[in-house]
Structures are given as C-alpha cells and as structure tokens.
Design brief:
The chain is of the alpha+beta class and 489 residues long. It has 9 helices and 22 strands.
C-alpha cells in the first residue's frame, strides 16, 4: 500500500459450499467452528536450506543445518512479541486442532510442488486498498461473493484460472488477518499480493514494478546505546510440518512455553530454546514465481511522471525488478533515514503489508509473491502516480496468475535471484548483522554475513546514492546496472 495523504475478528463462513452466482454469504459462526481446513502440506524444510527432514514431519531439526549462521542469542523471553507472532501462534493451534495431514518422507534435496489441479483450485489475490483492488476486479469474471467477518471475497476467474480476491485494508496486521482467513477458507494453491510502494533504490523509478525475492520487516531494529543498530531478531513463527520457510533468514529461536505441570515454577522460562519457535528477519518467495513475474514487459514511463517535473521530456524504460520488499507500519521520506534503514535491511521498495502477507502464507505453507508498483520516489519528491503503480502491479500479478504452471516449484529465492541493480545484490547481503552510526545518525560501517558464511566488516560504501543527484529517472538513459555498482571499500 502507498497513498499520499492517507480490525476485527475473523470466523469461518456459515456457508459450507461455495456460492453459485453473485450471492453473498455472511459469517455468523464462531471463528473456526466449521474447521474445513485442508491446507496443502509439504515436508518441513530447513530455513536457508533445500534439505527436508525424512520420516516424521513433526520431528525437530538441527540448527546446524542452517546455512546462514545465527548472529545473536534468542530474543529475551520477557519481552513482548508482535501481534503477527501471536496471530501465527493462535492460527497454528487452531489448524492443529482441526487435524493435520499425515507426514510423508521426502527425498533429501527435492522440493515438493504445489499443484494447480483440474478440480478448480484457486489462486488467492490480496490488495490493501480499493485503488489496488480495482484493476484486479476489472480483469475478473466474478461468479460469487462471500463475506466472512466483514471481509468480502470475490470468487471467479481470470483468463479461465479460478481466483479469489480480497481487500484486506491497510497495514501489516490487516493484511495478515485477511490472508489467514483466505488461506484457511479457500485453500489457495498460491497467493499474490499486488499494490503500490515507494522506491528505496535510486535505480527503481516511478512506473517500475518490484517483485519479492525477499520480504523483510524493516521496523525490527534494536537501537543500541553504544553507537550502532542491529536487527531485533525478527518475527517469531511457530514452524510446523505445513510451513514453508525455506530460504528465510533466521535471527534466533524461542523458548518452550509453559505447561500446566510446570506453569507455577516457569518464571521467565528455561534457558533452552526450541526449533518450533523461530524468529525470521526475512522470508523468501519461490524463485519460480519471481522469474515468471520478471517475464512481463511494462513498456515505458514518461520522464515527466517518473520525475514529477512537467518540463521533463521523453520516456524511460519501465522494468520488473526482482528485489527486496521492505515492509513496516511506517512511512519514511528523508533520504538520510532511508540510508539508515537500507544499511540494515537492503530494500528496493517500501510498503506496509508485505511481511504480514508473507508471514501467514509461509506459516501455512502457501507459495506467495508480493508485486509492488512504484508510485513515488524520495529521489524525486514531486513524483507520485498511485493509479499507474496500482495498474502496473495488477498487470504483473494477473500475468503471474494466467501463466502459473500446473506445478509451482517452491525452491526459494536467494541473493543470486535478485536483479543485478537491487540494493541487496550489490551490497552482498539482505540483512546486516550490525550497522555503526555517528551521534547524528550517519552510517559509517556495516557488518554482515557473506554468502560463504564468513563475517565481513567494511566502511559503508553507498553514501553517495542517498542524495538527490543519484536519481536515475532524469538521466538521458536508464543507468540501473552500469552506473550503480558497489564502490571499492
């Protein structure tokens, strides 16, 4: 969601079958009382690994198998978790009570695929705002409507492919809740979020589209009192045999919770941690969906639109970039603040719903993709085109729905999946371990874990990019990959 100038509980619908015709079915039943959950499952995968567990899918796994070393100890147990974590805990418990599918062994190194079978399995679409939902509905042949605790789900087809679309409302928790209702009610084989965002990379311009190689919660920051910042461990998730968290970046593990037998002496909890509770700093989309989205051709954008200058002439190429979506319930305009955020979380687009959407789908094992049209850029403060951005994001999302293969291969995105001009690809990391700053908040040094597993500390090399002069929309030609390269440290 991105707009200038600008909660409720959920339940299972009282209608046990999908509506025929354009009818409305209102939810009047206690949440989850009909419990028809049949989320398609996969064997549990190690985050940042392609290796599933053989045998019992509920068995714990070895943290040593995670390719990205843990950077810190787990979050102290007496601190409050986020609403997103609490919603995930509740949802996991409810789904377990409804009955989990039996575990199956998967050959090590293989990846199960979600199957778009001939029985009408749907693709889910989530939009935060009406402006973002309108182009999706315009492309749909709507055959039914279901209202579940206020959320209006439109059922129908796009180019013959069954879909369900919902407007979630703005911000993370709204998107998370609507996605949870959608996943548990309609069991989509894949989910796509389309909408608008602001540029967080000088090579990304108004009119471009950024798709999620990764999504990060850029608000998860620990501001230390000794002149540096670090990630605040990420968002906690209950990982089950359904969950698909492969490729995610893990910041730590939570402690086992109390039981009736030990609650009276639990205190602040045991020192031991459990692999069932993981803190994720980043979640990765399936690489196959990212590559599919990149095939769409956007055309060009008038330079006057990209720069916000009525005197600018000509056009610039509009592209679909595979990048990192920086998600948070915040809006940051000054370039200096963008620089501080990006030094820790290397984002290419900034928005407000992606992490909640990705979190729910990852926990429930539904393949997902975030598609963001760029409506504005801090490098060009006068530029804003929300409708153009919403329409282009919808066009890419519709293309993905139309061309989604029968088997959605869920191998996760990696740093190598990202476009060469993305901030993370050029920096060599998605999430830093530590960023040193001056008393005035200027970035001086960054420490991150390299792809080889070793720790790298270097002087911050990108300061010159967080000036108005670094914008690429006003240049005579697009300079996404040639001019923007990582300087020598």
């Amino acid at each position: 969601m991105r707009v200038l100038g600008a909660g409720h509980a959920f339940g299972t619908s009282a209608c046990d079958s999908e509506d025929v015709g354009v009818g409305v079915c209102n939810s009047l039943v206690h949440p989850w009382s009909l419990c028809r959950v049949a989320i398609r499952r996969s064997s549990l995968f190690i985050a940042s690994s392609h290796k599933p567990l053989d045998g019992d899918a509920s068995a714990p796994y070895d943290p040593a198998m995670i390719s990205r070393p843990l950077r810190r100890t787990p979050c102290p147990r007496d601190r409050r978790g986020s609403l997103a974590a609490l919603a995930g805990l509740a949802l996991a418990g409810v789904l377990a009570a409804c009955g989990a599918p039996s575990a199956t062994a998967t050959r090590p190194g293989s990846r199960p695929a979600h199957v778009l079978s001939s029985n009408g399995a749907r693709v889910g679409i989530v939009n935060a705002m009406g402006m973002e939902q309108a182009p999706i509905l315009a492309a749909m042949r709507v055959t039914g409507v279901r209202v579940i605790d206020g959320y209006r789900f439109y059922l129908g087809t796009i180019a013959g492919r069954p879909v369900v679309d919902v407007r979630s409302g703005e911000k993370e928790y709204a998107a998370e809740l609507a996605t949870a209702v959608m996943d548990a009610t309609f069991h989509p084989v894949a989910s796509v979020l389309t909408g608008t965002a602001g540029a967080r990379n000088p090579a990304v311009n108004v009119g471009d589209v950024v798709v999620s190689g990764f999504v990060v919660d850029k608000s998860s920051i620990h501001f230390h009192d000794r002149g540096f910042i670090s990630p605040y461990t990420g968002v906690e998730m209950v990982v089950t045999h359904r969950s698909d968290v492969a490729g995610g970046l893990v910041g730590g593990f939570g402690a086992p919770g109390p039981t009736p037998a030990d609650a009276s002496r639990y205190g602040s909890g045991p020192a031991a941690t459990t692999n069932r509770y993981e803190y994720f700093e980043a979640l990765a989309s399936p690489r196959s969906l990212v590559r599919l989205a990149e095939r769409y051709r956007l055309g060009t954008t008038p330079r006057s639109v990209a720069t916000g200058s009525s005197t600018a002439t000509g056009t610039i190429p509009a592209v679909v970039d595979a990048g990192v979506i920086g998600s948070a319930n915040q809006w940051t305009e000054p370039l200096a603040d963008q620089e501080l955020q990006n030094s820790l979380y290397q984002s290419d687009a900034g928005e407000n719903e992606g992490m909640g959407f990705a979190y729910t789908n990852a926990q429930l094992g539904v393949p997902w993709l975030v598609v963001r049209g760029i409506s504005d850029s801090p490098w060009y403060p006068s530029a804003y085109s929300g409708v153009l951005a919403a329409n282009r994001a919808a066009a890419v999302g519709i293309y993905v729905v139309q061309h989604m293969p029968p088997h959605v291969v869920r191998t996760p995105s990696t740093l190598a999946t990202l476009s060469p001009s993305s901030n993370a690809a050029r920096a060599g990391y998605v999430v830093a371990n530590r960023v040193d700053v001056t008393a005035a908040g200027a970035v001086t040094e960054v420490t991150y874990t390299a792809g080889t597993g070793g720790s790298v500390t270097e002087k911050w090399p990108f300061a010159s990019e967080y000036t108005f002069a670094a914008g690429t929309a006003g240049a005579s030609a697009r300079t996404a990959t040639s001019a923007l390269v990582k300087p020598s440290s």
